[in-house]
Design a protein that fits this description.
It is a single chain. The longest helix is centred in the N-terminal third of the chain and has 32 residues. It contains 4 helices and no strands. The protein has one domain. The chain is 85% helix and 0% strand. The N and C termini lie far apart (45 Å). Helix 1 crosses helix 2 and helix 2 packs antiparallel against helix 3. It is mainly α and 99 residues long. It is elongated, with a radius of gyration of 18 Å.
Length: 99
């Protein structure tokens, strides 16, 4: 049950992170095209698309053997953002350069 709660919180975080990123794009697209796209609609669509991608990857991993491992769950969420991977590589590179 703890793993399920973790997945739900990560799905919510994915929705929020993607929704916030799309707000600006929706505003620009609306001003350029002349079509009035509400900001809330852009945010919801961005969040839904990101969550759908994660759910698809989780479903594919589950279909493979009928269970989800922690690694499979991590891999599904890793497809949406790689911020920590980039930070770790950057900080490792800068630490080597400092020495």
């Amino acid at each position: 049950m703890k793993l399920f709660g973790n997945v739900i919180l990560r799905v919510i975080a994915t929705f929020v992170a993607s929704a916030l990123g799309v707000i600006g794009a929706g505003s620009v697209a609306g001003s350029v095209s002349g079509v009035d796209i509400p900001i809330w609609f852009s945010a919801i669509m961005g969040g839904i698309m990101a969550v759908a991608k994660v759910v698809e990857l989780l479903s594919l991993a589950f279909l493979e053997d009928g269970k989800l491992t922690r690694d499979e769950i991590d891999a599904a969420f890793r497809q949406t953002t790689k911020i920590k991977d980039i930070d770790e590589k950057t900080s490792t590179s800068s630490k080597k350069a400092d020495k």
